[in-house]
Design a protein that fits this description.
Blueprint: H1 8-11, H2 46-51, H3 65-74, E1 79-83, H4 90-103, E2 107-112, H5 119-134, H6 151-166, E3 170-175, H7 183-194, E4 200-206, H8 215-219, E5 223-226, H9 228-231, H10 235-246, H11 252-262, H12 266-276, H13 282-287, H14 294-304, H15 310-319, H16 327-334, H17 339-350, E6 353-355, E7 363-365, H18 367-377, H19 382-398, H20 402-411, H21 415-431, H22 435-444, H23 447-452, H24 454-466, H25 470-482, H26 488-504, H27 508-515, H28 524-535, H29 540-554, H30 560-577, H31 580-598, H32 603-619, H33 622-629, H34 633-639, H35 642-658, H36 662-679, H37 682-697, H38 702-717, H39 725-744, H40 748-764, H41 768-781, H42 787-802, H43 808-812, H44 820-825, H45 828-832, H46 836-844, H47 871-881, H48 886-893, H49 897-911, H50 916-925
Parallel strand pairs: 1-4, 1-5, 2-3, 3-4
Antiparallel strand pairs: 6-7
Helix pairs in contact: 5-6, 5-7, 10-11, 12-14, 15-16, 19-20, 20-21, 21-22, 21-24, 22-24, 24-25, 24-26, 25-26, 26-27, 26-28, 27-28, 28-29, 28-30, 29-30, 30-31, 30-32, 31-32, 32-33, 32-34, 32-35, 33-35, 35-36, 35-37, 36-37, 37-38, 37-39, 38-39, 39-40, 39-41, 40-41, 41-42, 47-49, 47-50, 48-49, 49-50
């Protein structure tokens, strides 16, 4: 009987060609079985052997660990399908899966489907592959009967019986199943899946849907499917891959830019990183990345266009002038009739174009591929290009796609028609949240056209307000309000625009004045202004109330930008109250919508990312917080709300400081102050100074703190209303900073006085997060050794745990760490409901250079053990290291699954591990496992 490690030569001993056709003849008795290794003359033709040979395993594979983990879990089912376009790493993922399954003792068969396959070649190769991998005997009916009624399914049944008797996990991996068109061969595979014993599993990769019905399997939970979006890389996957390939010095901003350019396409990432290997200026290489030059262009030229007929290439080059591809228009420009077939084939074979809708009526090119094709189009005569644009403009106008029609009309020199079309379209673009595109159009249009066309002015005013062009927005609203016969509705809209401008300028008193006196019906846009005014006048709960009213009035039909700014107001209201978990949920949902509507790198997405980053930071997801800001800070700086700016830059500064990169932290804070100075917004400057004082104070740098305090005092003294509005926020920043400096100077009385002032302001403004800070600092005024101080600290920590704010100690005053054991010894921790696990997580983050163990285990002495493991826990740990599931471990140890779950919980806690795989890694790191 063949063994799992059978060589390729031995694999070729399975079948011998009868009469030269490669089909084996074996005696027909059902009890007779022929050993695969004892019949030396029964050989597999080389084409069968090659089909059963897996490709090379790439050492630096792109497939992310999160995807492999999901796939490992899914392969316990009878059928798993990887269905995605070309270039998304299906084969690479199968190869990596094969390695992991072999590592835990599974039997793994490989088979590559080809376009030339039929039942006579595919089925024998499949049986041979499974037989060699699992060490089975060849079924006792001759292969020359395959194709006769029922004979091939008899072979399948015999194969499944032997696999079941073997009782060993057996996996069949079939690559490129989309090539298989033979109905008999497809039925053979489907029969194996439908009748698979519990230890047999089939994993398929394909560029199309599975060629057999999977509905019933899916209905019974016996089927799993991974599509293109599952295989598309996320930012964290790109970061991990680049650092494996190019070293840890690759910064996250560079990774984010490359991720945006490749759009998570694994093949593009492989090509780019291969070209960057050995280059010192990785950031410069990414900045200069283009699909029109270098290795990427050579790939497009040599492996894509060379395989296409000239008419198809001509069509693609001309269609590259379009933003999205409509097959009829592509055919018109390319002068071919089968444009839809060309695009569909290109999607399946290369992944360089992808269908936007399910009907194949709209496609888009990968940006790098479009760049390459446009470089070819640029070589065409100008007259020919203008003619193509004119044809596209007329086609789009005829199909009521006025934005595209205007775009191509401008390029064709059809200016008058372009103006007519774009006037009708800009309002729609604004409602859809495509403000940057609106501004791009407005910058192209002559000022006299905007002044003459009333329909453009309000849309232009909104675009300028939301993208922080306050002077332009004010000028346009002046034009609107000065126009004779302006209606009350238009006047209200113009006033709301002015209110939005004031909010972007951090002037909430003026924002209120702009909309007072209007008989508003509390529409969504009006409610947004009221929400931000409420937040900064001490009523964050009212902000949520106004959004609730807006949702009711709009009946779920709020336009994109109304909804985005409303969501940010809700998230911000939760965040300043200290409810970071609630804030994270709001920001995350809004970010997903923004990315789906306007793209990953857009102003709406950047604003929500700033809020979500701040919430994640408070919740202890530090690396996620930093990743959310990557390649978005410039957008936030250019046009985001002041609150988004502060959240983004303070989060960035604290992240860099926590990682031990103090210089970068202060660079971020200085940038925030510079933006505040340029905008004339003192709160941004005050936030920067307050954070700089905090970072110096926790390092006991008294002189540095005092120098910064002088600047902060001058800034606050310039205000004229110390107890209301923004001036109160400035005073709050000032008093907390003064308390920190007093603590560094051992002036407990001075610290208490400042904290009393700060506590009163925080209470009036309903800023719950700042109240926790005040409480923690107050507890430190007496040195933390008296009962009242401990009670204050216990209450603060109890509130922090209820809101899951694991960073309060590290961010507010790390010295309080020494007092945490005292609240436990005094019995206050239990009374306040503070868990030891929360105190440990909060304390861990007080170390400079700390990193989350769930992402990167920190070094420990080889023989150190965090806790003594029991004999049973050691048995479970050993089983975990071999990839066993809870059910398998329970069966091995002859206990119930519930018992294993209980032991697993204790094991993870003792090893300080986030999951099963992490537990094994930690055990090896600590010397518990070899």
């Amino acid at each position: 009987m063949a063994e799992a490690g059978t060589s390729l030569y031995e694999a070729e001993q399975v079948v011998e060609g009868a009469a030269g056709d490669g089909i084996v003849a074996i005696p027909g008795s059902t009890t007779q079985r022929l050993s695969m290794r004892t019949k030396a003359s029964d050989t597999v033709p080389h084409r069968f052997a090659i089909k059963t040979m897996p490709p090379h395993s790439v050492r630096q594979a792109v497939a992310p660990s999160r995807l492999l983990a999901r796939l490992r879990e899914a392969v316990e089912l009878p059928l798993v399908v990887l269905a995605s376009r070309a270039g998304f790493g299906k084969t690479s993922l199968l190869v990596q899966l094969r390695r992991e399954l072999l590592a835990v003792g599974g039997a793994v068969a490989w088979l590559t489907a080809e376009a030339s396959d039929d039942a006579a070649t595919f089925i024998p190769a499949l049986v041979a592959s499974v037989g060699v991998a699992a060490g089975l005997e060849v079924p006792a009916r001759s292969f020359d009967q395959i194709g006769r009624a029922g004979a091939d399914l008899w072979v399948a049944s015999e194969l499944l019986v032997q696999i079941h008797e073997l009782a060993r996990p057996t996996h069949l991996l079939i690559d490129d199943l989309h090539h298989l068109t033979d109905e008999q061969a497809i039925e053979f595979v489907y029969y194996l899946v439908c009748n698979a014993p519990p230890n047999f599993h089939v994993v398929i990769s394909t560029r199309a849907e599975p060629p057999f019905p999977v509905e019933e399997l899916n209905a019974h939970g016996l089927y799993a499917r991974f599509d293109t979006e599952d295989l598309r890389l996320r930012l964290e996957d790109t970061v991990a891959f680049l650092r494996r390939r190019l070293g840890d010095e690759v910064d996250i901003e560079t990774c984010a830019r490359l991720h945006e350019r490749t759009e998570g396409w694994p093949m593009a990432l492989q090509i780019v990183t291969a070209a960057m290997s050995g280059k010192s200026d990785v950031a410069g290489t990414v900045a200069g990345l283009s699909g029109a030059t270098g290795d990427i262009a050579r790939y497009f030229s040599g492996f894509v266009l060379e395989s296409l007929p000239p008419p198809a290439v001509r069509m693609l080059v001309r269609a590259s002038l379009l933003r999205t591809l409509h097959p009829p228009l592509c055919g018109l420009l390319g002068e071919i009739s089968d444009s839809a077939a060309v695009l569909a084939a290109l999607e399946q074979d290369t992944g360089l174009v992808s269908a936007i809708d399910a009907d194949g009526e709209l496609y888009r090119m990968h940006p790098l591929f479009a760049e390459y094709l446009r470089s070819l189009a640029a070589e065409m005569p100008e007259e020919e290009l203008q003619g193509l644009h004119a044809s596209a403009a007329e086609w789009f106008a005829a199909h009521d796609m006025l934005e595209q029609a205007a775009e191509h009309a401008f390029r064709a020199g059809m200016r008058a028609r372009a103006m007519d079309w774009i006037e009708k379209q800009l309002r729609y673009l604004g409602v859809q949240g495509r403000i940057v595109e609106v501004l791009a159009w407005l910058d192209r249009l002559p000022p006299e056209e905007i002044a003459r066309r009333e329909g453009l002015q309000l849309t232009a005013a909104w675009a300028c307000a939301l993208c922080y062009r306050p002077q332009d927005a004010e000028r346009l609203t002046d034009l609107i309000l000065a126009r004779p016969g302006v209606t009350p509705e238009v006047a209200l809209q113009a006033s709301i625009v002015r209110s939005a401008v004031a909010i972007h300028c951090d002037d909430y008193e003026r924002a209120r004045a702009c909309i007072e006196g209007h008989d508003a019906d509390l529409g969504p846009v009006y409610c947004n202004s009221l929400s931000y005014i409420a937040i900064h006048t001490g009523n964050p709960d009212k902000a949520r109330y106004y959004q609730h009213i807006a949702d009711q009035r709009a009946r779920g039909a709020r336009n994109f930008y109304d909804a985005m700014y409303g969501a940010f107001a809700v998230g911000l209201s939760y965040l300043i109250e200290g409810q970071a978990g609630e804030a994270a949920g709001v920001f995350r949902a809004a970010l997903a919508r923004a990315e789906a509507s306007t793209g990953w790198r857009s102003l709406p997405a950047a604003v929500q990312a700033a809020g979500l980053a701040a919430a994640c930071w408070e919740l202890g997801a530090e690396d996620e917080a930093r990743a959310l800001l990557a390649n978005r800070l410039d957008l936030i700086e250019q046009a985001a709300l002041p609150d988004a700016l502060i959240l983004a830059y303070l989060t960035l500064a604290r992240y860099e400081n926590q990682k031990g990169r103090e210089g970068k932290a202060f660079d971020a804070l200085n940038n925030l102050a510079a933006i505040g100075e340029a905008r004339g917004q003192p709160r941004l400057v005050a936030a920067s100074l307050g954070e700089q004082i905090r970072q110096h104070a926790v390092r006991n740098r008294l002189m540095s703190c005092r120098m910064l305090m002088n600047a902060l005092d001058q800034l606050v003294a310039a205000g004229d209303r110390p107890d209301s509005g923004l001036q109160a926020e400035l005073r709050l920043i000032r008093e907390i900073a003064a308390a920190r400096i007093a603590l560094v100077d051992f002036d407990d009385d001075g610290a208490r006085r400042a904290l009393e002032q700060a506590g009163g302001i925080a209470a009036r403004l309903r800023r719950g997060r700042d109240q926790i800070t005040v409480a923690i600092l107050t507890a430190c005024c007496g040195g933390g050794d008296d009962e009242s101080a401990l009670r204050i600290l216990a209450e603060a920590m109890s509130l922090a745990e209820s809101f899951k704010l694991v960073r309060v100690v590290a961010d507010d005053w790390p010295a309080v760490l020494d007092c945490l054991p005292d609240i436990d010894r005094a019995g206050l921790a239990r009374g306040a409901g503070i868990s030891a696990a929360f105190l440990e997580r909060a304390g861990d983050r007080c170390r400079f250079g700390w990193s989350d163990e769930s992402a990167e285990p920190r070094a420990a002495p080889p023989k150190a053990r965090p806790a003594q493991l029991s004999a049973r826990e050691m048995e479970i740990l050993g089983a975990l290291s071999h990839g066993r599931s809870n059910k398998e471990i329970a069966k091995i140890l002859d206990v119930g699954p519930a018992t294993i779950k209980w032991h697993m919980k204790n094991l993870l806690a003792k090893l300080n591990a986030a999951n099963r795989r992490h537990a094994v890694d930690r055990a090896r790191l600590l010397g518990i496992l070899e």
